[in-house]
Please model this.
Amino acid sequence: MSSLLFNGNCITCHKETQTISAPSVVKFKEVYKSAFPVKKEFVNYMSSWVLNPKEETSLMHHSIQKHGLMPNLSYDLDTLREISAYIYETDFTKRGGKH
Ligand code: HEC
Model:
């Protein structure tokens, strides 16, 4: 369920390992995991950021300069929490650059 949500939506812009029109999943996960090693905090911060993307609360200012601020996707918080937990649990480096 959350993998479908992730693959159907986030992957449009975020490739697994390659930064093209947005930072790769591996990249933003690495930044978030070093800021929030504990799953609960990772999920809290990521889901509320994606719910309402803002430069002031970004952990990736350089990416905003490079790609522009991520648009608001109008998901509800529960869905985003599921997606964030899925990102935390999944090793995207093992899936190669495919997609
Ligand atoms: C329309 C393209 C697009 C889609 C769809 C998209 N993103 Fe993004 N996202 C971006 C861009 C561009 C950035 C880099 C600029 C920024 O950080 O705002 C970004 C940045 C991020 C960041 C880093 C935020 C920070 O601290 O700056 C996270 C986390 C993230 N996206 C998660 C997601 C998740 C989860 C989904 C799916 C629910 C998703 N994105 C869907 C374009 C997209």
Observations:
- The chain has a mean pLDDT of 92.
